[in-house]
Amino acid sequence: MGIIVQKYGGSSVADIEKIKHVAEKVTNTQKKGNKVVVVVSAMGKTTDNLINLAKQIHKNPPTREMDLLLSTGEIVSVALLCMAIENLGFEAEGLPGFLAGIRTDNIHTKARIRTIDTRRILEELKKDKIVVVAGFQGISPEDNITTLGRGGSDLTAIAIAGALKAEICEIYTDVPGVFTADPNIVPEARIIPVISYKEMLEMASAGAKVMQSRAVEFAQKYHIPFVVKSTFIENGGTMVTEVDFKEGAVVSSVTLDEKQAKITFFHVPDRPGVAARIFGALGEANINVDIIVQNVSTSGYTDLSFTVNIAEIERAFEISQNIGKELGCKSVTSDNEIAKVTVIGLGMMNHPGVAARMFSALARAGINIEMISTSEIKISCIVRKKDGQKALKTVHQEFIK
Ligand code: ASP
Ligand code: MG
After folding, report:
1. Is 44 in the pocket of ligand 1 (CB under 6 A)?
2. Distance 240 CA to ligand 1 centre (A)
3. Residue with the nearest Cα to atom 8 of ligand 1?
4. Which of 98, 116, 193, 287 could bond 282 through an S-S bridge, CB–CB 3.0 to 4.6 Å?
5. Ligand 1 atom, smallest distance to 156 CA
6. How far apart are the CA of 142 and the centre of ligand 1, in A?
7. What structural domains does the chain harbor?
8. How far is the CA of 55 from the centre of ligand 2 (A)?
């Protein structure tokens, strides 16, 4: 008999009614003859609230205790869901991460899963129980409780599905699947029935809030197919799996990231070691740089721009100003009024001309492109923030029929 792993996110277990609804879905899956393992997130905004509590006590809470605190959110969901399942006349066994055999490294608050000892889960399944596992947590080599980083329940579900060689891993959430664009901005956007791991990863890094990217990376590495679907709507869903690039859509989705900011160094001396100095310092400060553009130099000087997440712009700007002075630049500026529009598609690999089409569509809409970056399966353009949503609609219309 096949094993099905189902993961329910925080919005799917936000209150008692919703937990009862999840219990119905889970027991129906077992009734159809499957062995069921369920992974749950903390109820609603519980994790945010717990973080807030800690911050009211300590500016920089000790991470071991932070994990102890955060792990409780998922355990509450596990216990309540098991009670709801038992109330329907089925047997359930709830397991926090450490009882489910989830062994991690010891990097508190962003631990990585190392191994899963599936003995306990399998034992309970053998007794025909529905096994409910707390997402987002494990146990370190020193026997401390760890958590897997925000959104980590996705990773728990994928990793358990891999370890159990489950038939399928179903990720239940509050949207009916992965869309071609954010439907709040582009009403014509539709659900993508099948998409590759690669595209999902690009979508996550391009600003789409679909799934934890570590979970997608893990699924790709171990070839674990999964489905993203709604807890509240029966049909729809997006299957994420290996797709041959020859069968892939030229453009499968477009995304908008309004959380970008730009720093520009004007009149930097164009000599070896300058870029290394700037990006070395940012790297040391753990600041992720996204797009980098350096102009052709004139008379030994050049301009250099790059983007970072807006949450890091102040730190990045401070570091950049100091380096600017040291290098003798004319000025260093920062600009929060930008947005990044990205088109993603596996089929881009064997269809040239996608970039030209994107640029022409933006030009026709009167939108100026400030920076461009490309990879094998994506093209990103930085535009003014005020043009971001229009740019998204424009490229969606151009590519997605
Ligand atoms: N509760 C955790 C969070 O909010 C983990 C998860 O929901 O996946 O990040
Ligand atoms: Mg989540």
Report:
1. no
2. 21
3. 151
4. 287
5. 8
6. 23
7. 3-174 (3.40.1160.10), 254-399 (3.30.2130.10)
8. 21
Tens-level pLDDT at each residue, the chain (401 residues): 699 999 999 999 999 999 999 999 999 999 999 999 999 999 999 999 999 999 999 999 999 999 999 999 999 999 999 999 999 999 999 999 999 999 999 999 999 999 999 999 999 999 999 999 999 999 999 999 999 999 999 999 999 999 999 999 999 999 999 999 999 999 999 999 999 999 999 998 887 777 899 999 999 999 999 999 999 998 889 999 999 888 888 999 999 999 999 999 999 999 899 999 999 999 999 899 999 999 888 889 999 999 999 999 999 999 999 999 999 999 999 999 999 999 999 999 888 899 999 999 999 999 999 999 999 999 999 999 999 999 999 999 999 98
136 lines ligand 1 (CB under 6 A): yes
Mutate to test the pocket of ligand 1, among 12, 38, 41 (most ligand atoms within 8 A of CB): 41
Name the residue among 329, 309, 323 with its Cα closest to residue 262.
Answer: 309
Evaluate: CB of 134 within 6 angstroms of ligand 1.
Answer: no
Dihedral sign (CA 282, 284, 286, 292): positive
Length of the chain: 401
Task: State the distance from the centre of ligand 1 to the C-alpha of 136, rounded, in angstroms.
Answer: 6
Give, for ligand 1, the residue of 71, 136, 209 to mutate: max count of ligand atoms closer than 8 Å to Cβ. Answer: 136
Q: Confirm or reject: Cβ of 42 under 6 Å from ligand 1.
A: yes
